[in-house]
User: Fold this.
Amino acid sequence: MSPRYHPTSYATLGEALGSYTVPELKLLAALLETRTPSRRDDVIRTITGHFSDEGVRALWESLDRLQKAAVAEAVHEGPMFDAGRFKARHGRLPDFGDLHHFRGRPTHLRLFLPGPGILPDDVRKKLLPFVPVPEPPALATLAALPATVSVVPRPWRPNEVEERPVVVREMEAAALHDLRAVLRLVEGSGIAVTDRKREPTAASVRAVAEVLLGGDFYRGEEGGTLGLGPGAAEQIGPIRAFALPMLVQAGGLAQRRGQRLAVTAAGRRALRETEPARV
Assistant:
C-alpha cells in the first residue's frame, strides 16, 4: 500500500480498507472467501462482514502468538502498531505477510491492522472485552553491545527492517570539557539565541559544534535522515551543539542578555571549580 498521507487513526474498518487498491483488497478478501467480488465497495463489504462480534473472535483465534501480541498492544496501547517498540519487547516482528505484489500473501494480521498498521476504532471496541492486556515490558540487559541494531525506518512498512551499526561514544571526559568550552564561548559573546524560545541560532550551533570534544554525533554533510513519508525526509541535525546552550541556560550558568547569552555568577563559579589541575 502506498497512501499519499499517513493517518493516525481510523473510525471504521471500512474507512481503513479504503486506502487499499482493488488488487490489494482482493488479496485480503481471499483470506476470508474462496470467491471475491470484483467491485471495490463489494470487496470492502465482504471483508467487513466477517467482523461481527462472533466473527472477530474467530479471526482473533486464527492468529499466532506474536500476531495476537501485536493486536493486543494496539487494543490497549495503540491504536497504531509500533514496530520498534514491539521488536524491543518481543525480539522480532509479527508476520504481516506480503501485500505489495499481485501474487502477495498477506496474513490475517493485516485485517486487524490495515493501512500503516492502525487498529480501527470499531474493531477495537469488539476486541476490548476479551483481548488480554499485554504484560508490562521487561528490560533486557546485554553483557556486550551488538555490532548492529535493527530499525524500522518506515512505520507503514513494518516488515522492512534495516541493520545499522552501533557507534559507541564515551562521554564522561567529554562532558566536562564541553561544559567549559561552551561557557568560554558564552564569555566571548559567541552564542546568539532566539527571542521567544531562547534556542541557539544556526550560526551559534555551528560555533558550538566546533569546540566540542570529538564534534557532534552527526556531521552536517553526513547527517542521517528520518523518513517521514514518500518523498520526504528530515535531517537529524545537531544534537549536542543544540542541547548544550539550552542546558547552560536551564542550569542557571548562562542567561540571555539582548540577543546573546552571558555567563552568570554560577557559570563563573563553575568555570573556576572545573579548572584543570596544573601539574
